[in-house]
Amino acid sequence: MLLIYTQKVTPRIDYSFKHICTRILKIPVDFTTTIEEFIAYQGPKISYGKQPLGNEVFIYAHGLLTQQGFEDVEISVRPWGETVGFFHATEKSSIPYDIFAAAFYLLSRYEEYLPHVKDELGRFPATESLAYKEGFLKQPVVDVWAHQFKEILLETFPQMEFPHKQLTIHNVIEAKRPFEFLQRGVLRNILGFGGDLWKLKLGRFFLRIRVLLHLRKDPYDTFSWMLNNVRNSASKLTIFFLLGEAFSYREDFNTKRQTFKSLVKYVADYCEVGLMFSFYSVEEYEKLKVERFQMEDITHRTLQSSTNDRQLVNLPLVYRNLVELEIKNDFTMFYYNEIGFRAGTCTPFLFYDLDYEVKTPLVLQPVIGKSLALTLGKEKDTEGTIMQVYNWVKQVNGTFIFFFSNRDFERRRENKTWRYLFSEKLNPNA
User: Fold this and answer.
1) How do beta strands 349-353 and 367-370 pair?
2) Of 24, 79, 82, 361, most Cβ neighbours within 10 A?
3) Which H/E stretch holds residue 285?
4) Which of left, alpha, beta for 254 (phi over 0: left; psi -120 to 50: alpha)?
5) CA-based max dimension of the chain
6) Element at 417 (helix H, strand E)
C-alpha cells in the first residue's frame, strides 16, 4: 500500500490519486494528515503539498485539488520526455509537474464547465479543448504520467510490486440503423424505388426488391458477421441500439416491430447490448427512463451501458441523469469528429461532479472516437491513424475502445479497411 501525506484530504485529492494509483497502476493507497503516522510508516510513501517534510518522494501541489468550484486556470503546456506536462512544480518536487492536479483537470472535464463556444447541437467542440490546441489529443497523457510516476516510485522503493495489467480491447458498435430496407415502411420504400429509378441505380433497385422479398439479407444486417468474429476473441463487444426518436427522418424506423426486437434479442444472447439514448431525450430524465425500460423489456436484462445519439455531453446534467437511472457505464466521452482521448486517459474513470464536488458511481469509458470522424475528416490513412492511438494504449496497457457502425461492415469496397481492422487487428485470438 502507498501512504500519502497531505494537510487535508479533499474529494479531489482522493479522486485523482485513486485514478492514477489504483485504477491505472493497480496499487492501493491510503491517506494521512498526521506527520507522526507518516514518519512511522515503513512502507512506500509520498508527501503531497507545498513543501517536503524531509527527503521523501515529494510531489508539489499546484493547488487545484484543494479548491472548490471552477474558475479560469492559467495553463502552460511544456514538453516532458515523449509527452507533455502542465502545472509546473518547484525544483524540490520529485517530478516536474503536478500530474495529479493536471489529471483532475482533464478527467473532470474542468474546461467544459467554463464558458466556451458550442457547436450547432450544443456540444463542446474538440477544437476548444486544451488537448487539441496543444497537440496531445491522441495521447493518453494521464496514463503516461502514471507510468512515469511509477518509475519514480521504483527508484525510491525498489521492493514495490505492481500487479500485471493487460491491454483491453473493447469494440463498440453504433446500430441506430440496423437495416437499410427492412422496417422502413411502405411509403419510404416506394419513394426509395422511385429514387433508385430516377438516378438509374438499377443495382440498388433490384437489391431492394430481393431484400424485401427475403431473398437476400439486408446489407446493413452485419450482426452475425460481427458476432462470429468475436466468438473466439479476447476482445469485448457491446452493440448499442437506438429505441427513441431518431435525430432525422432519414434515420427513423419502426423499433416496435417484431423483426427489430428479435434482432436485439439475438444479439443479446452473444454479447452485451447497450442503449443509445435519443438526442431529444438525453437531457430529460423521464424520457430517458422510458427508453431504458423499453430496452430492458426487450432484453429481459438490467441495462448496464449507454451512449447517446450525436454525443451530447452537457455537463453535468446529462451524467446526473444517468447516475439517477443507475446506469453503470457510459460510452459518450469522446468527440464526434476527432480521434483521441477527450479526458486524457485510456483507463475507465468515474464521473466527478464539479458542482457538488463529489465522485459518482458512473463509470465513463474512454472511447477514442468513431469511424464517422475519420470519414468526415476524409482521413487518407485510416488504419495508420487508429493504430497510432492503439500503440499508445498498448504501451500503457490501457483500454482501447473504438466506435464502429454496423454499416461499416457492409460488403462494399470502401469498407474494406473497417472490416479488416475489426476482424484482424482489433479482435485478437483469446
Assistant:
1) unpaired
2) 24
3) helix 285-299
4) beta
5) 84
6) helix 416-420
Provide the pLDDT for residue 185. 58
State which amino acid sits at residue 412: R
State the cell numbers at 394.
498498448
d(CA 300, CA 255): 16
- Report whether 271 contacts 305 (CB < 8 A): no
DSSP 18: I
Length, in residues, of the chain = 430
CA distances from 181 to 40, 140, 217 (A): 71, 40, 10
Say how many C-beta atoms besides its own lie within 10 A of residue 198's C-beta.
Answer: 8
Q: Which residues contact 153 (CB under 8 A, 6 or more apart)?
A: 2, 44, 46, 57, 160
Grid cell, residue 80, equals 516532458
Q: Is 173:405 a contact under the CB 8 Å cutoff?
A: yes
Return the HEC string of 365-400.
CCEEEEHHHHHHCCCCCHHHHHHHHHHHHHHCCCEE
Q: Taking the domain 168-180+218-425, which CATH number applies?
A: 3.20.110.20
- Write the pLDDT tens digit of every residue in 10-20: 999 999 999 99
Q: What distance, in Å, lies between the first and last C-alpha atoms of the chain?
A: 32
Amino acid at 8: K
**Are the beta carbons of 99 and 88 closer than 8 angstroms?**
no
For 313-364, the pLDDT digits (tens) are 999 999 999 999 999 999 999 999 999 999 999 999 999 999 999 999 999 9
Helix/strand/coil for 56: coil
**pTM (2 decimals)?**
0.93
Tell how strand 358-364 and strand 349-353 pair up. antiparallel
- Quick check: 60 and 93 in contact, CB under 8 A? yes
Rounded to the nearest 5°, which phi and psi values hold at 132?
Answer: -70, -45
Give the H/E segment covering residue 88. Answer: none
| DSSP 8-state assignment for residue 123 | P
Q: Which residues pair with 5 in a beta bridge?
A: 32, 47
C-alpha Rg value of the chain to the nearest Å: 24
Residues 328 and 305 sit within 8 Å (Cβ to Cβ): yes
Q: Report how far residue 363's alpha carbon sits from residue 329's, in angstroms, rounded to the nearest whole number.
A: 5
Give span(s): CATH 3.20.110.20, the chain. Answer: 168-180+218-425
Contact assessment for residue 114 and residue 79, using Cβ atoms and an 8 Å cutoff: no
Q: Residue 427 and residue 93: Cα distance in Å, rounded?
A: 42
Report which DSSP code applies to 125.
P
